[in-house]
Amino acid sequence: MVNWAQILLNSAITGSLYLIGAVGLTLTYGLSKFPNFAHAEYITFGAFVGYLVAEQLGLGLPMSLLAAFLITGLGGLLCYRFVFQPLAKRGATIIHLMVASIGLGFLLRYSIGAIWGWEPLYFHIDWPSYDMGPIRITSLWIWIIFSAVALSIILHLMLIKTKIGKAIRASSSNPELALASGININRVILITWFIGAGLAAVAGIFRAANTQIWPMTGWDIILPIFAVAILGGIGNYYGSIVAAFIIGLAENLGVVALMALGLSTSYRIAIAFAILIITLIIKPQGLAMLFRRG
Questions:
Q1: Which of 17-26, 167-176, 183-192 comes out lowest in average pLDDT?
Q2: Which of 204, 162, 182 is CA-nearest to residue 40?
Q3: Dist. CA 19–CA 289, nearest whole Å
Q4: CATH tag, 4-123+133-290
Q5: In the prediction, which pLDDT does 82 show?
Q6: I need a labelling partner for 50 at 20 to 30 A (CA). Which of 39, 173, 238, 290 fits?
Q7: What is the SS3 assignment for 82-122?
Q8: What does the alpha-carbon distance between residue 227 and residue 53 come to, in Å, rounded to a whole number?
Q9: What is the SS3 string spanning the chain?
Q10: Phi and psi at residue 274, in whole multiples of 5°?
């Protein structure tokens, strides 16, 4: 018998992880106007930094999250400043920038493999589990859901109430008008890339803590993260919140269907791919029309 309460909880956990990973991709695309495939390596690098801090230095999860956010955020900022920004200034098209991001991703991935190796590593943090009626939840899953909720609230307040948030929204929706209004778009983009890469690192730590960590950790979840960004409406933060939980629910319902059909649950990744393709065919703007302010 299917435990639907557990399925809904698992969907919330999956959606929360995808939300944390997709927000940075969504925000940077909204400003830079190209899909950054090296985002997968930001996820991976952040996971390894978190592993270094939590496991090898023994400083615990909170410090690992903070260190990974700051270090990976700085790395993302430098990638834009010294790779993508010079290309854009020289007239690179979206295809050129996309290919450059793929190349950068390969460079980062194999550099990570050379440093930490290709064998899977595991966090050894003890995550207590709790039974609440028909569902079981671990403290790690509580961390993931809490972080996603906190992120949603904090970014909403930042985008609505702060100068940098308003500058991000203005630069994303109308860069020419933002520039004419005196907004330093280059600084806004650098800050956004820092935040985006930092959040990718947080998603990487949670993914690694829940499964394993190896140089392909980011690529293991980059497809559903892109599906979230596209379904939510590329560049639309609020749409990505809804899309993350739609994808999370679809994946977990898909697992139930796959098991009922006697198929491998590894096919769950095809669900995100199918949603991505259907969205592009039927409604390329995704959920963005529902969130015009985002």
A1: 167-176
A2: 204
A3: 19
A4: 1.10.3470
A5: 96
A6: 238
A7: HHHHHHHHCCCCHHHHHHHHHHHHHHHHHHHHHHHCCCCEC
A8: 31
A9: CCCHHHHHHHHHHHHHHHHHHHHHHHHHHHHHCCCCCCHHHHHHHHHHHHHHHHHHCCCHHHHHHHHHHHHHHHHHHHHHHHHHHHHHHCCCCHHHHHHHHHHHHHHHHHHHHHHHCCCCECCCCCCCEEEECCEEEEHHHHHHHHHHHHHHHHHHHHHHHCHHHHHHHHHHHCHHHHHHCCCCHHHHHHHHHHHHHHHHHHHHHHHHHHCCECCCHHHHHHHHHHHHHHHHCCCCHHHHHHHHHHHHHHHHHHHHHHHHCCCCHHHHHHHHHHHHHHHHHHCCCHHHHHCCCC
A10: -65, -40
235, 30 Cβ separation under 8 angstroms: yes
Average pLDDT of span 214-240? 90
Mean pLDDT confidence for 71-75: 98
User: Considering only CA atoms, which of 279, 287, 187 is closest in space to residue 236?
Assistant: 287
- HSE at residue 163, side-chain half, CA atoms within 13 A, is 6
Structural tokens at position 172: 């994303």
**Do residues 152 and 241 lie in contact, with contact meaning Cβ atoms separated by under 8 Å?**
yes
What pLDDT is recorded for position 175? 84
Is it the case that residue 151 has pLDDT exceeding 50? yes
User: What pLDDT was estimated at residue 293?
Assistant: 47
State residue 294's pLDDT score.
Answer: 42
Q: Are strands 135-138 and 129-132 parallel, antiparallel or unpaired?
A: antiparallel
How far is residue 93's CA from residue 202's CA, in Å, rounded to a whole number? 30
Non-local (6+) Cβ contacts of 206 within 8 A are 17, 20, 140, 143, 144, 147
Average of per-residue pLDDT across 210-238: 91
CB 32 within 8 A of CB 189: yes
Give the start-to-end residue ranges of the domains of the chain. 4-123+133-290
pTM flag (> 0.85): yes
The answer, yes or no, to whether residue 292 has pLDDT greater than 60, is no
